Every structure is written in structure tokens, then in C-alpha cells.
């Protein structure tokens, strides 16, 4: 990342997921910035703005702050500015935010907005911001519309994941959806069935896909992952995320592990016996191996 003190062109948004639509906007921003001899800056927020506006709100984020920042850095943007969405910030008018934060604090000379964006506490339109920006020395410019055939949005990706449609979500994201967390002690039932699992504890704000079984990949290789309440073992309503990594038999307790979702195998099922469950796990493994070997 370059010096924070150079003049920049910026865009503002939550950028949850840093999906293909976001990347298109950031490519446009970088192009416009560098054509003007400026640096490209993305201004985004820690957490979710609605957590400030509605304290009881619990977002289901595609990318909590640390993951979002990592993905934004991978786009090649020059600067990332993370703002705390405080009650004071929530009450700022578009004019005050543009002048006090963008111009005075960050040295923004160009602000790139979508034509249908609303901005600030007073929800100023693109045309309003363009007029107010001109008066304070900020050029407000539009982003060329993304011409993808499908709806690429954080909302559509959440809907796909909550329906177990991980392949569709991955297409919209432009990368495999992932869960990252710490491996914690589980119930050890998988080992007794011949399928030892790592029990993953993830950020409570992270969206967990629909309950069921999935083909996944990690730095340690392919595996199959189950999300659910383990109805066969009468685990109550406690939801767990357990991954069996093919050919791996080490100790991962306390380690951080990232799991990428590749394919939805089946929904959550209750079996009449552990023998029936083991037979299904063998079928799941065979299906995974078939998918892995596909050209």
C-alpha cells in the first residue's frame, strides 16, 4: 500500500463479500484514478452500519472486517480506509461527510458513485452530491454499469448460500465462499465411525450456509463438511461445523483453518442408526471423490 497522504479518487460502500460487482467498481475506480494521476481509495466500514442504527441487529456477513480487508487488498487498490460507523457518523449529512471526512481528512479529489446511490443521513442523490462536490472541489463521477447477465449483489449471494447453492454463490463471488475459524474440541463421534472431523468455531457474525453436507477444500486438501444439529446423535439445537479431511489424521486443535465450499452434496438428514449414518458418509465420500476427479 502506498502513502496515505497523496491525493486520491475514492468510492464508498460496505463491500460485503468483495464480489464480482464490487471488483468491477474497483477496477473502474483504479482506472479513473490513475488516468488523473491520483491514487485509488476505497472507503468502507468496520462491522455493519445497521448494528449502530439497530443495536439488536445481528448481521450475517459474507466477510467480517478482517476478511473484507484481505480481499480488498487483493484487488490492487492503493488505499483502504476503514471507518467506525458511529452514531455521529450516521447523523452526518452528505455535505459534511464529503467535506470533513473525504476532503479534509483523506484528501479525496474525485468521488465515484453509482447513479442510483443515496448518500449521507439526508440520502442525497448522485446529482445533489455532484453539485455539492463541485462547490467544495470534489469531482463526483459515475461508474459505468456492470453488464453481467445475472444479479450480482451481496443479497443474492446470501440467498444462494442460505439455500445451499454454493456453486451459484461462488460464481457470483468470483471465488469459493469460505469459512475460517479455530479448530475446537468436538464430540469425537466421527472418529468412532471412521471419519474423524475437525470442529470449526467461526466468527458469530459470519453467514453459515444451509445445513447439510458439502464437498470442500482446505490448504490440507479436499474433504467433506457437515453443517447442522446432528439429529441422529440427538444434539439438540446446537449447530456445529465439522469437516473430515481426506487422508489427514493430524491434530488441528487450536489451529486456524480455512475451508472453501465447492459443492452441496445433500441436506441435513436424520438416520435410524449409526450404521446407517456411516453408510451415508461412505456414499458422500464416494460422491466427493467422483467430483474431485472430474476434468
Span of the ends, CA to CA:
38 Å
Name the poorly predicted regions.
none
CATH fold name of the largest domain, please? Rossmann fold
Please compute the radius of gyration using only Cα atoms: 23 Å
Q: What is the strand content?
A: 25-35%
Helix content range of the residues, please? 25-40%
Q: How many strand elements?
A: 11
How does the SSE layout of this entry go?
Layout: E1 8-12, H1 20-35, E2 39-46, H2 50-53, H3 65-74, E3 79-84, H4 87-90, H5 94-105, E4 108-113, H6 126-136, E5 139-142, H7 154-162, H8 166-173, E6 178-184, H9 189-192, E7 198-202, E8 212-218, E9 221-228, E10 240-245, E11 256-267, H10 274-292
Parallel strand pairs: 1-2, 1-4, 2-3, 4-5
Antiparallel strand pairs: 6-7, 6-11, 7-10, 8-9, 8-11, 9-10
How would you describe this protein?
With 295 residues, the chain is of the alpha/beta class. The protein has two domains: 8-142, HUPs (Rossmann fold, 3-Layer(aba) Sandwich); 177-292, Riboflavin kinase-like (Elongation Factor Tu (Ef-tu), domain 3, Beta Barrel), CATH 2.40.30. The chain contains ten helices and eleven strands. The protein has helices at residues 20-35, 50-53, 65-74, 87-90, 94-105, 126-136, 154-162, 166-173, 189-192, 274-292, and strands at 8-12, 39-46, 79-84, 108-113, 139-142, 178-184, 198-202, 212-218, 221-228, 240-245, 256-267. Strand 4 (108-113), helix 6 and strand 5 (139-142) form a beta-alpha-beta unit. The longest helix has 19 residues, at 274-292. The two termini are 38 Å apart.
Amino acid at each position: 500500500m502506498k502513502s496515505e497522504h497523496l491525493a486520491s479518487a475514492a468510492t464508498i460502500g460496505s463491500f460485503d463479500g468483495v464480489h464480482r460487482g464490487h471488483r468491477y467498481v474497483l477496477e473502474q475506480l483504479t482506472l479513473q484514478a490513475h488516468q488523473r494521476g491520483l491514487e485509488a481509495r476505497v472507503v468502507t466500514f468496520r462491522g455493519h452500519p445497521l448494528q449502530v442504527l439497530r443495536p439488536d441487529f445481528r448481521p450475517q456477513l459474507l466477510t467480517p472486517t478482517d476478511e473484507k480487508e484481505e480481499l480488498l487488498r487483493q484487488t490492487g487498490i492503493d488505499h483502504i480506509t476503514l471507518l467506525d460507523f458511529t452514531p455521529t457518523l450516521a447523523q452526518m449529512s452528505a455535505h459534511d461527510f464529503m467535506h470533513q471526512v473525504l476532503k479534509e481528512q483523506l484528501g479525496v479529489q474525485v468521488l465515484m458513485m453509482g447513479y442510483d446511490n443515496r448518500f449521507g443521513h439526508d440520502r442525497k442523490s448522485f446529482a445533489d452530491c455532484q453539485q455539492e462536490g463541485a462547490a467544495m472541489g470534489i469531482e463526483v463521477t459515475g461508474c459505468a454499469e456492470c453488464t453481467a447477465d445475472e444479479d450480482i449483489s451481496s443479497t443474492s449471494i446470501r440467498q444462494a448460500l442460505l439455500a445451499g447453492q454454493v456453486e451459484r454463490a461462488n460464481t457470483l463471488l468470483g471465488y469459493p465462499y469460505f469459512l475460517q475459524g479455530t479448530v475446537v474440541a468436538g464430540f469425537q463421534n466421527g472418529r468412532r465411525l471412521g471419519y474423524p472431523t475437525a470442529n470449526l468455531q467461526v466468527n458469530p457474525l459470519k453467514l453459515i450456509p444451509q445445513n447439510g453436507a458439502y464437498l470442500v477444500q482446505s490448504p490440507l486438501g479436499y474433504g467433506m463438511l457437515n453443517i447442522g444439529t446432528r439429529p441422529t446423535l440427538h444434539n439438540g439445537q446446537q449447530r456445529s461445523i465439522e469437516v473430515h479431511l481426506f487422508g489427514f489424521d493430524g491434530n488441528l486443535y487450536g489451529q486456524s483453518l480455512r475451508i472453501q465450499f465447492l459443492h452441496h452434496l445433500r441436506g441435513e438428514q436424520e438416520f435410524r442408526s449409526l450404521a446407517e449414518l456411516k453408510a451415508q458418509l461412505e456414499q458422500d465420500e464416494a460422491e466427493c471423490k467422483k467430483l474431485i476427479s472430474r476434468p
